[in-house]
Design a protein that fits this description.
By secondary structure, the chain is α+β, with helices and mostly antiparallel strands. The chain has a domain of 120 residues: D-amino Acid Aminotransferase, Chain A, domain 1. Helices cover 28% and strands 33% of the residues. Strands 8, 9, 10, 11, 12, 13 and 14 form a seven-stranded antiparallel sheet that branches. It binds thymidine-5'-phosphate.
Length: 252
């Protein structure tokens, strides 16, 4: 089989040239990293779960009219996505205090915020993705004012959608991170949701017990990451009851 051209290898995913111009194959690895890759492990089955969960969320966004890069899932670990220019920002939306915000501002984890708070980090591993303000973004030309308006609107729509979907299965959406890409259509350009939406990039707490069902299980050594992600997938009906990511025949 002809080898595909690798475009980029990140911490959790590898991107290959897609079959048609303007497409990319996104391969979900089993690698888990935290604290800017200071902590790392290979968690068998994580890539399969994130591939399926990201497909589920992106398809849902498409159905409510939120533009995103997802085209179709190709197999257990790969999906075809639309190529785009990634804006070098991590867009974080928080509904409850947790993680770096709790640390930075001394707010107890789990405290409800008076409204969703959107934060921006500059995507640069060497710098550890530092928090930046809209002033930095405008001054250094990472995004225009129009882009920032569109990014805020996309982020809040994703927040409403994801919060509702999670509420429906007894999970609290504490916070999440998305990335946004730019696509060109004739003389126009527009922004779409890109990268992935998965428990790697969200904080998800069980509403009854507060149990963590996201990457904090790995970051904080709280147990099995695949059990946590499988639970999210099971509740959403992404995987039938009893199926595990190690038994692919049960999933399709
Ligand atoms: P934080 O509290 O560590 O800043 O994380 C906020 C949210 O962003 C949380 O849902 C996890 C997610 N996140 C990523 O997806 N990638 C990252 O590199 C970091 C630091 C956080």
């Amino acid at each position: 089989m002809a080898r595909r051209k690798k475009i980029y290898e990140g911490k959790a995913k590898t991107l290959f040239e897609g079959p048609e111009p303007g497409t990319i194959v996104q391969y979900f690895k089993d690698d888990a990293t935290a604290f800017n890759a200071e902590k790392r492990d290979v968690i068998e089955g994580k890539g399969v779960l994130n591939n399926m969960l990201s497909e589920y969320f992106m398809n849902g966004l498409t159905q409510i009219g939120v533009p995103n890069h997802f085209i179709r899932r190709l197999n257990m670990r790969e999906q075809l996505v639309r190529a785009c220019e990634i804006i070098p920002l991590e867009i974080i939306v928080r509904n409850f205090a947790a993680g770096s915000m709790s640390k930075r501002l001394g707010i107890e984890e789990g405290t409800a915020l008076p409204r969703p708070i959107v934060e921006y980090c500059y995507k640069d591993d060497a710098l550890g993705d530092p928090l930046v303000s809209e002033e930095h973004i405008a001054a250094f030309g990472w995004a225009s004012q129009q882009d920032m308006d569109d990014i805020l609107s996309l982020a809040l729509r994703v927040n409403d959608f994801l919060s509702g979907v999670m509420f429906g299965v007894g999970i609290k959406l504490v916070d999440f991170k998305i990335e946004i890409g730019r696509v060109y259509e004739g003389d126009y350009q527009r922004l779409i949701v890109a990268d992935e939406i998965s428990p790697d990039s969200c904080r998800l707490w069980d509403m009854e017990t507060g149990q963590k069902l996201d990457k904090d299980v790995f970051r904080r050594d709280l147990g099995s990451l695949t059990d946590a992600y499988s639970e999210v997938a099971r509740r959403l009906g992404v995987m039938p009851k009893g199926a595990t990511p190690m038994k692919p025949t049960l999933i399709n």
